[in-house]
Amino acid sequence: MKTVTTQAVPNKSSVGSGTAGGSISASFSKFRELGLLAFIVILSIGVQIRNHSFLTLENLNDIATNTAILSILAVGMMLVIITRGIDLSIGATLALSGMSAAQMVSHYPGLHPLAAIAIGVGIGLACGMLLGVLVAWVNILPIIATLGMMNVFRGMTYQVSGGKWVSAHQMPESFKQIATGSMFGVNNLIVIALLIYLVSYYFINYTKTGRRIYAVGSNPDSAKISGIHNEKILWLVYTIMGGLSGLAGVLWVSKYASAQGDTAVGYELSVIAACVLGGVSIAGGVGKISGIILGSVLLGILNNALPMINVSPFWQTFIQGAIIVTAVLINALVKRGIDRNNLMRRKI
Amino acid sequence: MEPRTIANEKPFSLKGYFLQWEWLLVVLLLAIFVMNANLSEYFLDYNNLRDATMGFLDKAFIVLPMVFIIMMGEIDISVASIVALTSVIMADLYSRGMPMEFAVVICLVVGAVCGWINGMLIVKFKELSSVIVTLSTMIIYRGIAYILLEDQAVGKFPSWFKFMGWGYVGTIPFILVAFVIFAAGFGFLLHKTAFGRRVYSIGNNATASHYSGVDVDRIKVWVFTLAGLMSAVTALFLTSRMGSTRPNIANGYELEVIAMVVLGGISTSGGKGRMIGAILAIFLIGFLRYGLGLVNVTAQTLLIILGLLLIFSVAIPQLKRRKGAARRL
């Protein structure tokens, strides 16, 4: 695991870690992440020169807290993209579960915060399961299924709320504490995100089901022939995504202390951006936890730094899009380089 | 996947003819008419029907090329952003003193270029799906629109421009006339020309089409360019109807357009469907929306209905195919 933590599953057995090809693709992937890290460092230094309050402990803590929700969602999205899918509905799922949880706590202020989280996660899981059934068994293209359900969930959010907001004064202090409180001096959001990262790292690297997700994404046909139930894996992936969106919904509402009908509209795009920045391949089968952490952190820093160096907020959409395109194209070109190298080696 | 066989001539049967998806759409459309007529006694009035069509035909122009795109097994979710970008550029140029005629031409050119960029990216980077390419260009095009106009709105267009969305040719709305002409053109292109047949063959099997001498890449670029151009046409009509434009114009149009195409019986796995189905679906969704507006259904409930409609119209053929495959086993 230490030597070749690179590409999809099949590379491991076919290419020994000692051969030239293995180290080439390994170094490409390392290069990617080191490059991303270098970019983050250069960006931070650049922003620091323009605005001295950037690299303060307080601001760094802010960035980490703000990035936590994004990075939680990125874990789920990575799994979905690894199976060659995409989920556009997560912004709406997030809003629906956040709104439902907020409605519950505003009606029953005595509700334990954990119960509120359970409600959110439960609703998210239900949304995810439904999507999973549509994608896995009904065989609808992920983009169509999630585009349709995005609108259904968003519409339901307005229905649940009756078009009204749930604002800070309607929420009990204990609920707001979920996101603002801290454990061992670290903000809860960061703790939750770290926990999710640890669990999912173990899940996708060391469990059978986790490895099967990669297998289904790398080559669905051979996965099927190897006895993997592709449908079950797909369903599981969308369910996990839904559950994480539900959790993120509660955290979001608790953090911003307001639940609105249009909470997190378009947030799915940021999450997808974090994934492709982190080297998750849209073609499926490729993606690493360390990559999406870097991707989320880079996006988080950008979101925090752009206003600090007086970039107009109207540029942010464009910058986000440009980043996605650049990352996706670089991914594709690097992949081509690796493939060409592999071919050259085969000739000899 | 079972191989699809394509016979030279389909044997004609009356039952098969009436069991087609398009007839189902006709029945549904009639049902919606009956429902609307019951809800409002003025619904079936000629003037009312005419003005109702004017309200939803603006996005219909994108549906036409979207049929080609989905027919090829691709997707374009950047169309709404192209509408916004072209509309904003046109309005911005006009407000800076450019004559409206030039601004309209530039709007169309920009639309075509946006579509061409989509097509080139998809063709040159085969490892990227059209989903991710148009997803990223969707953000970029909308982003440029925001950079250009920020949070302002631009309006006060000349009166001939207003005619596009509000004017009549005789008693028929200009927008309807334009749509009929475009629809006939696209229908002809899809069903009566070699280009259209090639689109079908790409949808059925792109690799086989490539080896049969079909220039798959060129056709794809053309189709995406057409989608960009028609998005610009939609931008013209929409801007004319709204009277002003903002960067968040046409938000969510991609869903409606894709829903119309899919409801029209064009298969998302490519190679199946007809133009008439999509055209019926435009009127179906348009009048359904109008009727639900009559009974004060909120825009949010409409979202749910539209989403479910999209899901069901994809799910039903998929389940049918699954049942058919099970029977053959």
UniProtKB/TrEMBL annotation, chain A:
It is found in: Cell membrane. PANTHER family: ABC TRANSPORTER PERMEASE PROTEIN YPHD-RELATED-RELATED (PTHR32196), RIBOSE IMPORT PERMEASE PROTEIN RBSC (PTHR32196:SF72). It comes from the Bacteria. It comes from Paenibacillus cellulosilyticus. The lineage of its organism: Bacteria, Bacillati, Bacillota, Bacilli, Bacillales. GO terms for cellular component: plasma membrane. The chain crosses the membrane at residues 63-81, 114-136, 143-161, 181-204, 233-253, 265-284, 291-309, 315-334. This is Rhamnose transport system permease protein. GO terms for molecular function: transmembrane transporter activity. Residues 1-21 are annotated as: Disordered. CDD domains: TM_PBP1_transp_AraH_like. Residues 1-12 have a biased composition (Polar residues). It is a multi-pass membrane protein. Coiled coil: none annotated. Pfam families: BPD_transp_2. Keywords: Cell membrane, Membrane, Transmembrane, Transmembrane helix.
UniProtKB/TrEMBL annotation, chain B:
Pfam families: BPD_transp_2. Keywords: Cell inner membrane, Cell membrane, Membrane, Transmembrane, Transmembrane helix, Transport. The chain crosses the membrane at residues 20-39, 60-90, 102-123, 130-149, 169-190, 219-238, 250-268, 275-292, 298-319. One of its GO terms (molecular function) is transmembrane transporter activity. CDD domains: TM_PBP1_transp_AraH_like. It comes from the Bacteria. It is a multi-pass membrane protein. InterPro entries: ABC_transp_permease (IPR001851). It is found in: Cell membrane. GO terms for cellular component: plasma membrane. This is Autoinducer 2 import system permease protein LsrD. It comes from Paenibacillus cellulosilyticus.
